[in-house]
Write a structure and sequence with these properties.
Helix content is about 35%, strand content about 15%. It has 14 helices and eleven strands. The chain binds glutamine. The site of glutamine has 13 residues, from loops.
Length: about 450
């Protein structure tokens, strides 16, 4: 009830597209009944959470923050949300996001931008909550929800977590089922938890993850007991510092947070080693070819026939209906990605762009493979800057894409990566640190996070 009240009171932050207070109460009642009978309460027993509006929820509108899906009410539940309900969680509502999860500032939503609860010291200017999981980051940072789901294709869990001072982990690709999650770039999309601290993330990830025969890329591996395995003792662990992540003109405070992170990990018993990931600078351009290419294919299904919006002008034929629906339904950033994606996949350009990008993807993954010969974990900044003011970057897509520079390499390689709060900058805004681990080593990532938080 307290969280439902917070959600209702914080409407100005615009974190929720739809609130579902009755669902949260229903789950709480079910837990009370179980408790009375002395039954197991489940990993998430009684915890009310926010659900990014990219997860299909049975009987509750699911929009991906796009006009084209407005009014779409799925008749099925995504595997991840179903797992969470099974573990005893309840739903506070569906969280706002960048349209189809494309963006880094939550300004591309059809339902309006989300505001961060943070302000620069001495300034009243509204700041971005990061994106695309900006409703999730604000909901947790503003204490509207103890935890929320996020999805991360190229940083959308880690970047919003970093700029709002919360914790979020993208697990190894395949850990969480993609079934019932609105697809952006299928070879990169991965769900994960966003919460107040590492322990809550470990608990929630255990509830979310698991093999799902309905997702052909789901990992057929048991879910480890991450919570039970938590330990901030890093004795014997080697932590790599990738040289290429130290970029020219890097913000001094980002560098300072990175230095502090190294000290904290040393204090926890880890050894710091210098490593090289030579193809880092090609990762961002490769991501911005591969992700739009996959998006252009995935978004072809929104045609005005099967889901949500249909724009059928008087006397129009089928092609006109497609065009009118898509013109009205998709936002500008989504259209930009579809155009880029269809361009790089078109005959004549495919080899020059898409094939090259796929080769770079392999090289980036091989960089990490080689690095694991020297270290067990990698420490890097999550973002190049702290939260920036609303509207500052949304007229410049390339500047916006640069926010993902530290996040996309781990995405291309499918590796687990987490952002944990590191410190406040001179203006009182949170900065995050990123820990990247070997495939399947969420435990190592969580433990290093524990040592930092
Ligand atoms: N900001 C990145 C993009 O716009 C990442 C998005 C994501 O991870 N969903 O593509």
């Amino acid at each position: 009830e307290a969280f439902n009240a917070n959600v209702a009171a914080a409407k100005d932050l615009n974190a929720f597209i739809v609130a579902t207070p009755e669902k949260a109460l229903e789950a709480a009642d079910a837990i009370d009944a179980k408790r009375a009978k002395g039954e197991e309460l489940g990993k998430m027993g009684g915890v009310p959470i926010g659900m990014k509006d990219l997860f299909c929820t049975d009987g509750v509108q699911t929009t991906a923050a796009s006009h084209i899906l407005e009014g779409f009410v799925p008749q099925y539940e995504s595997t991840v949300s179903a797992n969470l309900w099974k573990a005893g969680a309840g739903m506070l509502g569906k969280l706002n996001l960048d349209q189809f999860a494309m963006g880094s500032s939550n300004e591309t939503s059809y339902f309006g931008n989300v505001l961060s609860p943070w302000k620069k010291a001495g300034s009243n200017a509204a700041l971005i909550p990061g994106g695309s999981s900006g409703g999730s980051s604000t909901a947790v940072a503003a204490r509207l929800a103890p935890a929320a789901t996020g999805t991360d294709t190229g940083g959308s869990i880690r970047q919003p977590a970093a700029v709002t001072g919360i914790t979020g982990i993208k697990p190894t690709y395949g850990r969480c089922s993609r079934w019932g999650v609105v697809a952006f770039a299928s070879s990169l999309d991965q769900a994960g938890p966003m919460a107040r601290d590492v322990t809550d993330c470990a608990i929630m990830l255990e509830a979310m993850a698991g093999f799902d025969p309905k997702d052909s890329t789901s990992l057929d591996m048991p879910v480890p007991e991450w919570e039970a395995g938590l330990s901030a003792d890093l004795k014997g662990k080697k932590v790599g510092i990738p040289r290429e992540y130290r970029m020219d003109g890097m913000d001094g405070e980002i560098d300072a947070s990175w230095e502090r992170g190294k000290e904290w990990l040393c204090d926890a018993g880890a050894e710091i080693v210098d490593i090289s990931l030579p193809h880092t600078k090609y990762a961002l351009p490769a991501y911005y070819i591969i992700a739009p290419a996959e998006a252009s294919s995935n978004l072809a299904r929104y045609d005005g026939v099967r889901y949500g919006l249909r724009d059928l002008p008087e006397g129009a034929g089928l092609q006109d209906m497609y065009a009118a629906t898509r013109a009205a339904g998709f936002g500008d950033e989504v259209k930009r990605r579809i155009l880029i994606g269809t361009y790089v996949l078109s005959a004549g350009f495919y080899d020059a762009y898409y094939t090259q990008a796929q080769k770079i993807r392999t090289l980036v993954a091989q960089d990490f493979e080689k690095a694991w010969g020297q270290c067990d974990l990698i420490l890097a900044p999550t973002t190049p800057t702290a939260a920036f003011p609303l509207a500052e970057m949304n007229s410049d897509p390339l500047a916006m894409y640069l926010n993902d520079v530290f996040a996309v390499p781990a995405s291309l390689a499918g590796l687990p990566a987490m952002s944990v709060p590191a410190m406040l900058n001179g203006e009182g805004l949170p900065l995050g640190l990123q820990i990247i681990g070997k495939a399947f080593d969420e435990q190592g990532v969580l433990n290093a996070g524990l040592a930092i938080e």
